[in-house]
Write a structure and sequence with these properties.
The chain is of the alpha+beta class and about 120 residues long. About 25% of the residues lie in helices and about 35% in strands. The chain has a domain of about 80 residues: Imidazole glycerol phosphate dehydratase, domain 1 (Ribosomal Protein S5, domain 2, 2-Layer Sandwich). The strands form two sheets. A four-stranded mixed β-sheet has the order 1-2-4-3, covered by helices on one side. Strand 5 and strand 6 form a beta hairpin.
Length: about 120
C-alpha cells in the first residue's frame, strides 16, 4: 500500500490542497502564486524522490507569508499522515547541500512535535 496523504486547508487567508506520495518519482506539480516558493517545492520533491502536488490560493496581494506558512502546515500534516505509526522510520537525519551559490544545512527530527527554525542571512 503506498504511503500517501491528502490535506485540505481553508482559512480566511488561504485555500490549499496538497497531495504527498512518499514512494514517488520526484514529480512536483506546484502552483502557489509565489514563484520562488514553487521552485523550491519542486526541487524539494525532485531531490526527495516523492511526488508532491500543491494548489494554493491566498491573499498574496497583502503578503506571501500566509500561503508559505499554511503550505508548511499542510506539508507537515501530510508527512505525519503518510508515515503512519512511524515504525521503521529513522528519527534523525541531517545534510549539507551545496547548490550553486548557496549552502543549505538541514536537520530533520521526525518526532511528532512540530517545530521550525529558519535562518537566512
Amino acid at each position: 500500500m503506498p504511503r500517501e496523504a491528502q490535506v485540505v486547508r481553508k482559512t480566511k487567508e488561504t485555500d490549499i490542497r496538497l497531495t504527498l506520495r512518499l514512494e514517488g518519482e520526484g514529480e512536483g506539480r506546484i502552483s502557489t502564486s509565489v514563484g520562488f516558493f514553487d521552485h523550491m517545492l519542486t526541487l524539494f520533491s525532485r531531490h526527495g524522490f516523492f511526488d508532491l502536488t500543491v494548489t494554493a490560493k491566498g491573499d498574496t496581494d497583502v503578503d506571501f507569508h500566509h500561503v508559505v506558512e499554511d503550505v508548511g502546515i499542510c506539508l507537515g500534516e501530510a508527512f505525519r499522515k503518510s508515515l503512519g505509526s512511524l515504525a521503521g522510520i529513522t528519527r534523525y537525519a541531517h545534510a549539507s547541500i551545496p547548490m550553486i551559490e548557496a549552502l543549505a544545512h538541514v536537520t530533520v527530527d521526525i518526532s511528532a512535535r512540530p517545530h521550525l527554525v529558519f535562518r537566512c542571512p
